[in-house]
């Protein structure tokens, strides 16, 4: 008789583990418990069903119990909640709608309980007009609210992935939408100047953004719900989407002896084993190692969960495949823009004390002479000493995802900025340029690393001393007149060699252009003439993104 493996939770990690295990062991007894009625749904597609981009509900059902049983001979028990684990006796206690409460033994156990939406104990939090989004049943309730009950306005609380996606999709089907976020930016994995570009896109599509405001409480009205904010603002709407984050769904493990981290995540080693033999854990409920900085963290993403499920199954049958950490690579659609990121952001690198450089480039997604070219803002973070890539972020209309995917792949192979310059990527005018944006980011990074240029970032302008520095705009007079950084003089780069007398050699020269390229040329001209020079990486375009303040003008008004 084969081994008996119990899997707690379906969706990404649990369902992947079950399928992999069956492919590796035809004789194993595999039982999968899922608290809900569905074992594997497309969680990431739920907002797009609400927004009518995905019209057929059945397309959200990735796998059904019947299909799992037929193809993989897996005993799928839905509406069956595992309420306790006894590692010493190798048993779990199950509460089932069909069978009542009973125990099940195991030879190996895989925990994939996932994460649950956070519902803080605020006044009015139990209102029936407040919705979270995790299961397809949640989706059905929201869908009914906006279709059958004809909701016309919504307040989204939380500016993370779910909050932003829900705000977009509700707006797409005609609702008036306000998004409230407690911090000063949406989408925390991005650095502020990158997130600001996505915030601007949301505002220009009519979403009212209220940042740096905390929700104090809710109150039901006869025909809606009232939301009170920390600054005294009172909002009213037909429904509230609560999307302030998730917590590991591990309460049932608290008396089991299975080790949990400070926020309740299951602690595992590189084999995805817990502190108990034959018990593995995968998915959103586990504490992982950050691939970049090596520290413990939690990154609830579907891609890593699937890989972890596969690796846990491998170890159960004796295959030695380690899990090497999570990079946190993600992509998000925000109306007409795409944002994507991989690795650490600046906030994380500063917290960990990792020395880094930053460079920005703003190339087009494909050859500029081919119709339809659009710019990409690409930010690269790399180690000051060896040029190892630490993270990258990008925003643009097209071509963003493939650039971040290329960089994420190179990071997984411990690549450096030198490797970026050498990548041979597919090129034809409709798809890219002979110098791909990824190559261009590498070139600028190598220039910094090798001392061919010294750069500064927009935030350094706040502490610039005009007595010891001179700020020079090397764009054309027309560009300067249309908008420039306060305190700068204008000397176009093509005139620079003939106007050196206007520069004070005792002061450090800070140059900038529109995107950084002319500034780099100017810095090379001046450095070779003995001047101390710094160039604004990413140029005036990055400066404007850093200066942008969401929520300062009425939603829907272009800026």
Q: The biggest beta sheet, please?
A: 5 strands, parallel
Per the principal axes of the C-alpha atoms, what is the gross shape?
A: globular
Number of strands: 33
The helix tally amounts to 14
Q: What integer is the average pLDDT?
A: 95
**Fraction of residues in β-strands:** 25-35%
Across the major sheet, the strand order is 5-2-1-9-21
Question: What's the N-to-C terminus distance?
Answer: 69 Å
Which percent bin holds the helix content?
25-40%
Poorly predicted ranges: 553-559
> Strand pairing plus helix content: what structural class?
alpha/beta
**Radius of gyration, taken over Cα atoms and rounded to an integer in Å:** 26 Å
Describe the structure.
The structure is a single chain. The chain has 559 residues and is α/β, with parallel strands linked by helices. The protein has 14 helices and 33 strands. A 5-stranded parallel β-sheet has the order 5-2-1-9-21. β12 (153-157), α5 (161-172) and β13 (176-181) form a beta-alpha-beta unit. α1 (13-24) packs parallel to α7 (302-316) and α6 (192-204) crosses α14. The termini are far apart. The relative contact order is 0.10.
Name a few traits of the molecule.
single chain; 559 residues; alpha/beta; five-stranded parallel β-sheet; 14 helices; 25% helix
How would you summarize the topology of this molecule?
Blueprint: E1 4-8, H1 13-24, E2 29-34, E3 40-41, H2 46-50, E4 61-63, H3 65-72, E5 75-78, E6 80-86, E7 91-96, E8 100-105, E9 108-111, E10 115-117, E11 130-131, H4 136-147, E12 153-157, H5 161-172, E13 176-181, H6 192-204, E14 208-211, E15 215-221, E16 224-229, E17 234-237, E18 239-242, E19 246-248, E20 266-267, E21 279-281, E22 286-289, E23 296-297, H7 302-316, E24 330-334, E25 337-343, H8 346-352, E26 356-361, E27 376-383, E28 389-396, H9 400-412, H10 417-422, H11 437-449, E29 455-456, E30 469-473, H12 477-482, E31 489-490, E32 508-512, H13 517-527, E33 533-536, H14 539-547
Helix pairs in contact: 1-7, 6-14
């Amino acid at each position: 008789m084969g081994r008996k493996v119990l899997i707690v939770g379906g969706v990404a990690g649990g369902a992947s583990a079950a399928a992999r295990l069956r492919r590796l062991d035809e004789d194993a007894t595999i039982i999968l418990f899922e608290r809900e009625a569905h074992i594997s749904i497309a969680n990431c597609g739920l907002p797009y069903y609400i927004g009518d981009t995905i019209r057929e509900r059945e397309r959200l059902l990735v796998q059904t119990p019947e299909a799992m049983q037929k193809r993989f001979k897996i005993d799928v028990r839905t509406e069956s909640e595992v309420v306790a684990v006894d590692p010493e006796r190798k048993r779990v206690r199950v509460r089932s709608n069909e069978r009542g409460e009973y125990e099940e033994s195991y030879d190996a156990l895989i925990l994939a309980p996932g994460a649950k939406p956070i519902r803080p104990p605020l006044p009015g939090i139990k209102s029936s007009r407040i919705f979270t989004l995790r299961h397809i049943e949640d989706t059905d309730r929201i869908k009914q609210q906006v279709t059958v009950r004809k909701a016309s306005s919504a307040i989204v609380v939380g500016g993370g992935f779910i909050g932003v996606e829900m705000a977009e999709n509700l707006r797409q089907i005609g609702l008036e939408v306000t998004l409230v976020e407690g911090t000063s930016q949406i989408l925390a994995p991005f650095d502020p100047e990158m997130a600001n570009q996505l915030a601007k896109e949301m505002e220009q599509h009519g979403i009212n953004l209220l940042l740096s405001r905390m929700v104090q409480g809710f109150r039901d009205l006869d025909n809606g719900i009232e939301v009170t904010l920390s600054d005294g603002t009172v909002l009213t709407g037909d429904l509230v989407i609560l999307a302030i984050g998730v917590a590991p769904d591990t309460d049932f493990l608290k008396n089991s002896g299975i080790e949990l981290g400070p926020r309740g995540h299951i602690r595992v080693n590189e084999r995805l084993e817990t502190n108990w033999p034959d018990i593995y854990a995968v998915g959103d409920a586990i504490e992982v190692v950050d691939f970049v900085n090596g520290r413990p963290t939690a990154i609830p993403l579907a891609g890593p969960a699937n890989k972890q499920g596969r690796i846990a199954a491998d170890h159960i049958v004796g295959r030695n495949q380690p899990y090497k950490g999570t990079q946190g690579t993600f992509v998000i659609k925000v109306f007409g823009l795409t944002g994507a990121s991989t690795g650490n952001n600046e906030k994380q690198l500063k917290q960990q004390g990792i020395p880094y450089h930053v460079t920005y480039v703003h190339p087009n997604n494909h050859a500029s002479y081919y119709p339809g070219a659009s710019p990409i803002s690409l930010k690269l973070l790399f180690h000051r000493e060896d040029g190892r890539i630490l993270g990258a972020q990008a925003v643009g209309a097209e071509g963003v995802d493939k650039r971040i995917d290329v960089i994420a792949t190179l990071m997984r192979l411990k690549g450096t900025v030198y490797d970026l310059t050498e990548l041979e990527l597919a090129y034809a005018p409709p798809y890219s340029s002979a110098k791909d944006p990824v190559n261009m980011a590498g070139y600028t990074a190598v220039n910094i690393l090798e001392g061919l240029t010294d750069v500064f970032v927009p935030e350094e302008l706040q502490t610039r001393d005009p007595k010891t520095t001179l700020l020079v705009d090397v764009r054309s007079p027309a560009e300067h007149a249309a908008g420039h950084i306060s305190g700068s003089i204008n000397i176009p780069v093509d005139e620079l060699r003939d106007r050196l007398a206007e520069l004070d050699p005792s002061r450090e020269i800070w140059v900038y252009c529109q995107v950084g390229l002319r500034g780099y040329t100017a810095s090379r001209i001046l450095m070779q003439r003995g001047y101390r020079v710094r160039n604004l990486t990413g140029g005036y375009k990055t400066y404007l993104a850093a200066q942008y303040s969401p929520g300062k003008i009425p939603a829907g008004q272009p800026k």
